[in-house]
């Protein structure tokens, strides 16, 4: 039979030491800084190039129908929205204010962050896809009046197939996200409950 | 003192205890190293915020505790339980008695609730109760009661396992 003091002696006699050294941490800091910055930079630049490309096409194409103007407007709106979401998400991830708060508050923050991410990955993404599809659909109205019928048909068929493909993928994705969120919320609520005095 | 020198100093004086806390929480060496690394990355990012704080270790522990709490991969934790069992059952003869006792102690800690694992790791590392209360956000009075309960629970689990 051992008492708590004996367990304390065992604890202090442990030889297990961290494998991570100070140099590893410094290397990790530099690596995480550059990979974070690179990812952010590539995604932002990529989206900015697309936005500029859309604007150039929009400004340099003559005799557009109102449906085409609306289509470009929606597409640009979607791109800017995506850019905004990406930037605000990175800002939120790098916001370390909550990390210094009491554990109970931090768990509460994790819960609301998980719900926010779920909403972003499901509902908001669905709305984003619908608007993009709508924009392409509107674009094909002009194609219908100015190009051979087969081109319109091929374009519209492509959009419909794309929609079906996205819908199918989203169905699987949303189900997985829902399961993940439920598991996480159960775990976080259990953690929150442990802090109740 | 420049940032890197201060950070090195902080790392030297706290890394072992933070590692113990992470190991106590996860019961897994690799996960403990990952969590410790993540904790110190966050410490570096927040170093300016608590440069003049009297008890810098409290903030480091707070970051470590919150980092551990966000470690929610349930599957990995289940795998870890099996692994710990495996170490004790099959490799028991290969490791020294001391290491076996340490492995058993970690296994017993893994049977506690998450917050209990965090608190008991700090108690075993002899962190003052006032500091544990500050880190965990539990009032000192309640903490004393909690610690008393966790100590009894851990001792009971350990003695039960040791008999087999």
Keywords:
heterodimer, A: 197 residues, mainly alpha, elongated, B: mainly alpha, globular
Write up what this structure looks like.
The complex is a heterodimer of chains A (197) and B (164). With 197 residues, chain A is mainly alpha-helical. Chain A contains 5 helices and no strands. In chain A, α2 (22-60) runs antiparallel to α3 and α3 packs antiparallel against α4 (103-146). Chain A is elongated. With 164 residues, chain B is mainly α. Chain B is built from 8 helices and no strands. In chain B, α1 runs antiparallel to α2 (29-46), α2 (29-46) crosses α3 and α5 (97-110) packs across α8 (140-163). The longest helix of chain B is centred in the N-terminal third of the chain and has 24 residues, at 3-26. The model of chain B is unreliable at 74-83 and 86-92 (pLDDT under 50). Chains A and B meet through α1, α2, α4 and α5 of A and α1, α2, α3, α5 and α6 of B.
Q: Topology of this structure?
A:
The complex is a heterodimer of chains A (197) and B (164).
Chain A: H1 4-12, H2 22-60, H3 66-94, H4 103-146, H5 149-194
Helix pairs in contact in A: 2-3, 3-4, 4-5
Chain B: H1 3-26, H2 29-46, H3 56-69, H4 74-90, H5 97-110, H6 114-124, H7 129-136, H8 140-163
């Amino acid at each position: 039979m051992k008492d708590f003091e004996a367990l304390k002696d065992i604890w202090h006699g442990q030889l297990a030491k961290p494998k991570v050294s100070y140099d590893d941490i410094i290397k990790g800091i530099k690596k995480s800084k550059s990979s974070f910055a690179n990812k952010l930079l590539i995604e932002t630049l990529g989206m900015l190039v697309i936005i500029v490309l859309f604007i150039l096409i929009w400004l340099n194409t003559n005799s557009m129908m109102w449906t085409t103007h609306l289509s470009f407007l929606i597409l640009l709106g979607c791109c800017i929205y995506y850019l905004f979401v990406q930037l605000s998400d990175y800002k939120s991830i790098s916001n370390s204010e909550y990390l210094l708060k009491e554990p109970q508050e931090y768990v509460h923050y994790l819960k609301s962050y998980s719900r926010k991410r779920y909403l972003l990955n499901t509902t908001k993404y669905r709305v984003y896809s619908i608007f993009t599809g709508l924009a392409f659909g509107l674009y094909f109205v002009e194609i219908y009046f100015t190009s051979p019928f087969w081109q319109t048909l091929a374009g519209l068929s492509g959009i419909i197939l794309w929609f079906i493909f996205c819908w199918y993928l989203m169905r699987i994705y949303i189900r997985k996200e829902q399961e993940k969120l439920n598991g996480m919320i159960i775990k976080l609520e259990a953690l929150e409950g442990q802090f109740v005095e | 003192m420049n940032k890197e020198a201060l950070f090195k100093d902080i790392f030297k004086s706290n890394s072992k205890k933070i590692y113990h806390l992470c190991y106590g929480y996860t019961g897994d060496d690799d996960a403990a190293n990952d969590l410790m690394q993540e904790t110190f990355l966050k410490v570096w990012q927040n170093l300016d915020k608590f440069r003049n704080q009297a008890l810098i270790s409290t903030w480091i522990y707070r970051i470590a505790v919150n980092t551990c709490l966000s470690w929610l991969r349930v599957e990995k934790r289940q795998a870890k339980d099996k692994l710990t069992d495996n170490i004790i059952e099959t490799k028991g003869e290969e490791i020294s008695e001391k290491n076996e006792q340490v492995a058993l102690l970690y296994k017993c800690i893994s049977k506690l609730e998450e917050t209990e694992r965090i608190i008991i790791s700090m108690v075993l590392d002899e962190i003052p109760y006032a500091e544990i209360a500050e880190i965990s956000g539990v009032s000192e009075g309640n903490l004393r009661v909690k610690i008393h309960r966790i100590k009894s629970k851990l001792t009971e689990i350990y003695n039960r396992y040791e008999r087999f």
